[in-house]
Write a structure and sequence with these properties.
mainly alpha
Length: 91
């Protein structure tokens, strides 16, 4: 088998033997974690956390903020909040 390290060393060939050794190490690690009381959580192939950005819902906001530069996240959020409040109350 290949190296028993999880770290790839310079010049190491990544082949079937290497991947098999990683799978064996992963299996051992999972057994140790299960022994300590940890369990793997299954998740569905679709997760709302992996959904696309919703920026398409605010094309007007995107146009208004497009050419502006902000020195901090707080200033960006303040400007975006100001413009979304304008959009909400302009109806």
């Amino acid at each position: 088998m290949a190296s028993s390290s999880l770290i790839i060393t310079k010049g190491q060939t990544i082949n079937t033997e290497y991947y098999l050794s990683l799978l064996v190490q992963l299996k051992d690690i999972l057994k140790k974690l299960a022994f300590l009381g940890f369990h793997c959580l299954e998740h569905s192939p679709y997760s709302p956390n992996l959904a696309q950005s919703e920026s398409h819902l605010f094309p007007g906001l995107k146009k208004q903020l497009k050419s502006r530069h902000f020195s901090s996240d707080a200033k960006f959020f303040a400007a975006a909040f100001e413009r979304t409040n304008f959009l909400i109350f302009s109806f």
